[in-house]
Amino acid sequence: MTLDFNADEPVVGLARQRELIRAVLGASSADETRWLEWKSRHDVSNADGAFAVSKAILGFANRMPDVAEQWAGGHAYLLVGVDTNAVHGVPTHDVEKVDGWLRRYLGEFSRYQFTYVPMETAEGKQHVMLVDVSPPRWGDLIHPLHKEYKSFGPGAVFHRYAGTTAPARPAEIYALAERARRGTKRVNVDVAVARGTVAVLPSTEDVRRTILDHLREDYMSQVDAVEEERDAAVSFRFGSLSALQTFAPDARTSEEFRQEVDEYLRDFDAAMQQTLIQAVGDAGTPVTFKLTNPGEDNLTQVQVVLTLPGTVSAHITADTEEEIDWPRQPVKFGQASLLESRLLAAVQPPVHPRLFLPSPEIEHRETGTVVRFVPVDLRPHETVALDPITLCSSHEGDLFDGQWRATATNVSSRIQGPLHIPAQSLDLDLRAVLRTAFGFDEDAVEADDGEDG
What we know:
- This protein has 11 helices and 18 strands.
- The protein is an alpha+beta fold.
- The strands form 4 sheets. Strands 8, 10, 11, 12, 13, 14, 16, 17 and 18 form a 9-stranded mixed beta sheet that branches. Strands 1-2-4-3 form a 4-stranded mixed beta sheet. A 3-stranded antiparallel beta sheet has the order 7-9-15, with no helix packed on it.
- It is flat.
């Protein structure tokens, strides 16, 4: 059996603590990992129990941050009083007493906390001791044993390996020394605008809403027409056979059709916005930022996070040659029999998977827009261009102010600074952009509009 537990997040709250304990009951001894260890019976009031718990804590504390962060947000957990066979429970003690018993072996290390988790068993209520060891950090010193215990003298260094806590090998000692050294190193980078501007153009929300409302009204009128036809067919059910044959019931209900229309309009709105972004890319210049390492250290996985004011929206820069994926229109209500629905589904064009390329993550919040760029490695004195992004705003201005911050995986600090992004007014109208996208002749459309008036 394997450990059935989601270790994507730290174990917080009684429900999650009990879930972890129950997962151990369904696991095997081979499932003890770099973030989890369990012991069937120990009492921390005696030397054997206090050392066993302290040894596990020190082993977890002497992990490398980039390894630890793969599970439970970097946290590690020791369970005492449970194994794969049963909940055995442990004696409960006052917190101050337990800290005193452990401090003899841990010294000043205090980045852990523990609790007693009550569990119902066949023998009654039992308590499992759960020790939560905080994530290790770059810059942390090596955490050694402080009090002799049997063959282990003061200064012994324990490390948590896969499935066991043991004296650290030379490779781990060197790595822990590097972990401590990185505390004196700081990320030293600079972010600046290489080229591009914020595209200032009129808001398209009202235009898009008008188009979507018009489409919705047109589709919903089909439902009214079919219901009137259905009522007429029922009223004249004793009429001619040909009159009854003209009425073909739809395989969809009116509610199903409304849901289909809602989905279509959502996709249509997304396609309109993508069309506008393509047009902005043609008429304006997407913004490219340059990231520079002016120092002498190699920096690994440098991630730049850009924060923009709420008046600016960010988008993945669209390929202006790429064809917009306009959604398929819903079949007219009243005309899709069950057989026709199946035939239409059968002739849907095949979906061809696209090559996945990492791109910036963009999140639009009420307080502003956040862009997370793909992490990159930087050699000393190297400058790289980050992926271009398309920035738009409906607010007039010559400059838009933003803020950037950067972190790297091989140093513990972060750096931040301001950004001043120039703006460029664009004369783009969504209606004109859509006319071009659908291949309409603008002069002809305007002439038709005039005739209708």
